Amino acid sequence: NYSQKFCAWSPHGIGQPHSDWIGDERKSFCADDFVETMYRLSQRKPLQTYCRWALIRSYSHVAAEAEASSSAEATPDFKQTPSGWVPPLGKPAPPGVQPDIPFRVVRSRYGNLPVYLDYKSGGSRVLTIVRKVEGDAEALEKMLRAHLGVKGLLSRADSLIGAVTVNGDYKTRTVAWLRTVGF
């Protein structure tokens, strides 16, 4: 019987019987425990901890759907959270339909727009960088330059890495414009 193993080192004392399940409060670092666990797996006897986690995983999608349905984006009168996060205004185009804008700016995993400031030359040169641009980055650069309206504005679009760089501190204006566009 595998549940009545004797081990040289056991939390119950030397030579005391124990049955050690993975994830149980009792811990034993005996090679017999590995053999016992492998035997139980081969006999298709599920481990207690595995069963608990499988049950949690099976119900986790229910909680996620309930949370998503009651999220801030579901309410039309929602404006802004205390942290400054604002939901996208526009709805994404359905698959197969070409949107009006030939580019897309994907939000970060926290829901913020990926617009950053980069300081060069000891802080004397400031760059505004829009990252996570999918599609035509040159079109985003042209539209952004037209919106900012600064003559002689130096900018660069890199479609390979999906970024647009503008010389100067235009982060707040860029974020505001991207929100009005629908990102």
TrEMBL record:
Protein keywords: Mitochondrion, Ribonucleoprotein, Ribosomal protein
Entry superkingdom: Eukaryota
Keyword Disulfide bond set for record: no
Matching InterPro entries: Ribosomal_mL49
Listed Gene3D superfamilies: SUI1-like domain (3.30.780.10)
Gene Ontology, cellular component aspect: mitochondrial large ribosomal subunit
GO-annotated biological processes: translation
Subcellular location: Mitochondrion
Gene Ontology MF, one: structural constituent of ribosome
PANTHER family: LARGE RIBOSOMAL SUBUNIT PROTEIN ML49 (PTHR13477:SF0), MITOCHONDRIAL 39S RIBOSOMAL PROTEIN L49 (PTHR13477)
Similarity-based family: Belongs to the mitochondrion-specific ribosomal protein mL49 family.
Protein name per the record: Large ribosomal subunit protein mL49
Organism (species): Geodia barretti (Barrett's horny sponge)
Native organism taxonomy: Eukaryota, Metazoa, Porifera, Demospongiae, Heteroscleromorpha
